[in-house]
Amino acid sequence: MKNILMTLSASLMLGGIATAQKVTFEEYTLNNGLHVILHNDPSAPTIITSVMYHVGAKDEQPDRTGFAHFFEHLLFEGTENIKRGEWMKIVSGNGGTNNANTSEDRTYYYEVFPSNNLELGLWMEAERMLHPIINQIGVDTQNEVVKEEKRLRYDNSPYGQLIPEVKKQMFKNHPYRWTTIGAMEHLDAAKLEEFQAFNKKFYIPNNAVLVVAGDINTTQTKEWIEKYFGKIPKGTPIKRQTFVEEPITQTINAVYEDPNIQIPAIVTTYRTPSMKTRDARVLDMISTILSDGKSSRLYKKIVDDKKMALQIGAFTYNQEDYGTYIVYGLPQSPFTTEDVLKEIDEEIVKLQTELISEKDLQKLQNKYENQYVNSNSSIEGVAENLSTYYLLYGDINLINTEIEIYRSITREEIRTIAKKYLNPNQRLLLNYIPSKDKAQN
């Protein structure tokens, strides 16, 4: 009885937090097509100004990959009214921080300032959109920066080619087949005019959403937004191409040799539907069951109990059009990748044939409740969530309602979705091994 009361109390507490954290917002669209979302939170004297553009690696040409990520760097170079090299100095000199990131589907820029610098943040993002300086000096400078990033993150990093190799094998038609950092030879070959054309096409108000969150005066904020963003011309509407992948009906076998590793890895990958679907969310839960933490099924069985692997993991790589579900393991001698794969497959078959317990389902629900609360616990998190749900999901109120989808997922659904997507004839089987040349040395 005591345990029941404790569980009930915990559930009520989590539910109360989730309800209390409901995110209120106001949205409207300027005449030039820029969508604006405002969220007032006076709990701390800080604000965030952020712009998310609907452009990512999937919007690039096959012979000009890496452009979207390149612009993540290039658009900090300066504007007509912000001298080259001054962007970061202005932000830090006014008590702020800023950053940007790029995915296959979007690019996101933001500044966090004390609330008395809201106008400055809005002016800077409007400058980035209206007056960027795209010249050869900036292109050459950022080309070297990106090359160094690629060397550190991919070329010289252990297992750095794992995700790129998975993407290349899983997608044959869709631009998801290349990485966001792209190919350096493509960037080297591109002319200045190509970078300028990319900017003109994608970094326009009608391909973006502006989110302002924090300790704001809504009336004043709207006036500043109109003052700085309202004058930016609307761009030519973007026509997007649809890419369709044929279903995977037999195992894709592949091998990759990495000179930066000594321990091989076995990687199994399944193509999954858009992150906007219910199925994708069920797969999120399946990933949590299998490998989220040391109490997860794969870790407890293969790493802790049987000591067959040094590391085991599973995660969903969610995207706007398609996703991938990746399971990997690093065997511990004397066990092999085949031994680890056998254990992984056994656990997947269990999910396909047996219902998880009610206790495990409750544990899952609690984890997702906690994630929901944490994701909206800061103005930075709220701003990015508002941007993402509007731009990529087409439903901004998912910031409040998506948790209900996770709450409604059943044990039977988890079993059904595991059967639907996680079958040997629907996957990539990648043997990721040390380079033979290195092994000989």
From TrEMBL:
<feature type="signal peptide">
    <location>
        <begin position="1"/>
        <end position="20"/>
    </location>
</feature>
<comment type="similarity">
    <text>Belongs to the peptidase M16 family.</text>
</comment>
<dbReference type="InterPro" id="IPR011249">
    <property type="entry name" value="Metalloenz_LuxS/M16"/>
</dbReference>
<feature type="domain" description="Peptidase M16 C-terminal">
    <location>
        <begin position="192"/>
        <end position="367"/>
    </location>
</feature>
<keyword id="KW-0862">Zinc</keyword>
<dbReference type="InterPro" id="IPR011765">
    <property type="entry name" value="Pept_M16_N"/>
</dbReference>
<protein>
    <submittedName>
        <fullName>M16 family metallopeptidase</fullName>
    </submittedName>
</protein>
<keyword id="KW-0482">Metalloprotease</keyword>
<feature type="domain" description="Peptidase M16 N-terminal">
    <location>
        <begin position="36"/>
        <end position="180"/>
    </location>
</feature>
<keyword id="KW-0732">Signal</keyword>
<dbReference type="InterPro" id="IPR050626">
    <property type="entry name" value="Peptidase_M16"/>
</dbReference>
<keyword id="KW-0378">Hydrolase</keyword>
<keyword id="KW-0645">Protease</keyword>
<dbReference type="Pfam" id="PF00675">
    <property type="entry name" value="Peptidase_M16"/>
</dbReference>
<dbReference type="Pfam" id="PF05193">
    <property type="entry name" value="Peptidase_M16_C"/>
</dbReference>
<dbReference type="InterPro" id="IPR007863">
    <property type="entry name" value="Peptidase_M16_C"/>
</dbReference>
